[in-house]
Design a protein that fits this description.
10 helices, globular
Length: 264
């Protein structure tokens, strides 16, 4: 908690931090670790966390690029091609873009960076990518292309949201993912415009219910010592008729992520 000073010998050389963790990791740690008017306490652990976030984005991008090998960049899915998970991540992207823009306008840089971090790590990487794998490895070409289109679109816009905070990483990845060829740099792109018509409280609530159920089943399996990959029977009691219909039409999400047999 003491101030850095040469006389105390407790200073941190930023060049050494950059050499070890990268400039983007240091920048992101400094932005997210402070609020206006407060001093910042330096923490190596938080620099490592920022580096881990950068690695998370890089690995997610590599996963997408591996699956984009034979993707037709001109493909555009119809509205009926979009699954609940697709509509959910698009809604969350637009809601995040709206909140990030509002916080940047108020110079709440730390909160804006946190919102981008949580969207990319917890929603895009931890949930949406996993929810698309059954389509990516399936035999339905249109379903696969739809998943790839949404993955690429969301990642590209998320990179634009993250660019002010991690300029080097986002530029490197943006150069590799499909985008408007007329633009030579992510710096030439426009700030993501919020599509208010794509934001849906209902879709987000339905998807949240499924995600919370998956997490609950995973926790119960872990407590019971169930072997990973071994299917378990799941019995759900749902009082709401509309929510029961949502689960009935999206059982595949639970089969894939909660290792359950058909629901009863």
């Amino acid at each position: 908690g003491r101030k850095m000073s040469k006389s105390l010998g407790n200073g941190i050389d930023p060049v050494e931090v950059i050499d070890k963790y990268g400039a983007d990791s240091l920048r992101f740690m400094l932005v997210t670790g402070n609020t206006p008017g407060n001093d910042l306490r330096f923490s190596w652990q938080r620099v490592e966390s920022a580096r881990n976030f950068a690695n998370k984005i890089w690995n997610a991008s590599r996963f997408l690029l591996m699956n984009l090998e034979n993707f037709d960049a001109s493909f555009k899915p119809a509205a009926e091609d979009l699954e609940l998970a697709d509509r959910w991540i698009i809604s969350r992207l637009n809601r995040t873009a709206k909140a990030v823009t509002e916080n940047l306008d108020k110079f709440e840089l730390g909160e804006a960076a946190r919102l981008v971090h949580d969207f990319i790590w917890f929603e895009f990487c931890d949930w949406y990518i996993e929810l698309t794998k059954s389509r990516l490895y399936g035999s339905d070409a249109r379903a696969k292309n739809t998943a790839l289109y949404v993955l690429n679109t969301v990642l590209e816009k998320a990179l634009r949201l993250l660019h002010p905070f991690m300029p080097f990483l986002t530029e490197e990845i943006w150069q590799k993912v499909p985008h408007d060829d007329a633009l030579k740099s992510i710096m030439e792109t426009s700030w993501p415009e919020v599509q208010a018509e794509c934001i849906s409280d209902e879709i987000e609530a339905d998807m949240t219910a499924i995600m919370e159920t998956i997490k609950a089943i995973r926790n119960m399996r872990a407590e019971a010592g169930a072997q990973p990959g071994k299917k378990s029977e799941a019995i759900l009691q749902i009082a709401d008729d509309e929510l029961r219909a949502v689960f009935a039409s999206h059982e595949g999400y639970l089969f894939g992520l909660a290792d359950t047999d058909p629901l009863t």
